[in-house]
Specification:
Helices cover 37% and strands 0% of the residues. It has 210 residues and is an all-alpha fold. The protein has a domain of 113 residues: Cytochrome Bc1 Complex, Chain D, domain 2 (Orthogonal Bundle), CATH 1.10.760.10. Bound molecules: heme C (HEC). InterPro entries: Cyt_c-like_dom, Cyt_c-like_dom_sf.
Amino acid sequence: MRYAYYTLAFLVILTLSVMGFRGANATRPPIELWPDMDHQAKYKPQAESKFFADGRADRAIPAGTVPRGRTTAADASYLRADEAHYAGKNADGSFVRGFPVPVTQQLVERGQNRYQIYCAPCHGAVGDGNGITKSYGMVATPTYHDARLRDMAEGELYNTITNGKNTMLSYADKLSPDDRWAVVAYVRALQRAANATIDDVPLEQRGGLK
Ligand code: HEC
């Protein structure tokens, strides 16, 4: 039993001598049993450099550099330089009116699908602001069917989805730029449907109206 105590005492002393007391000050660097790759000759971001004449470790991007990445034909948009398409804005910063992508049946159906997942819980299936969240106290969700939102530029609707607005959060992480335009197209369809007249219904279908 005595040897067990000796062994324990030896281990404690060994541990303390190698690792020291936690929180204790030391003037010498700690002994590192496994330094792994902790110490490397490298520059940290925005660090100073004595090597380069301008004193910066970060080098300026050479003129004419184009971002590389997903460069398949389907995603040649990596640069996202097209402001109208990716920000919903014209060159002068105003919001785009109309759509920078072709509006097809397929796009509107995609928009309906995304809308019902991401927007309908608050804005309601028909865009009147009466989503399920209303019954849980979220009463500030606006309808799309007032004049202000009907006259709003498509680019501004796109911008609201991208960046959010006041208490509404951004949906940029859930909807790709093209999906956002699809949702805008579907919002337009909802607005059109809520303000339709009998003349909008094809003749052969009017008989089915109640
Ligand atoms: C969690 C609830 C919620 C969800 C989900 C939601 N919204 Fe909103 N939305 C709001 C609220 C609340 C406002 C009012 C914000 C304000 O102005 O205070 C709003 C405002 C808006 C407006 C009006 C902005 C303006 O200029 O006044 C638009 C357009 C809009 N949402 C579109 C969408 C679309 C499209 C989606 C789906 C991608 C969506 N919202 C998803 C809650 C939501």
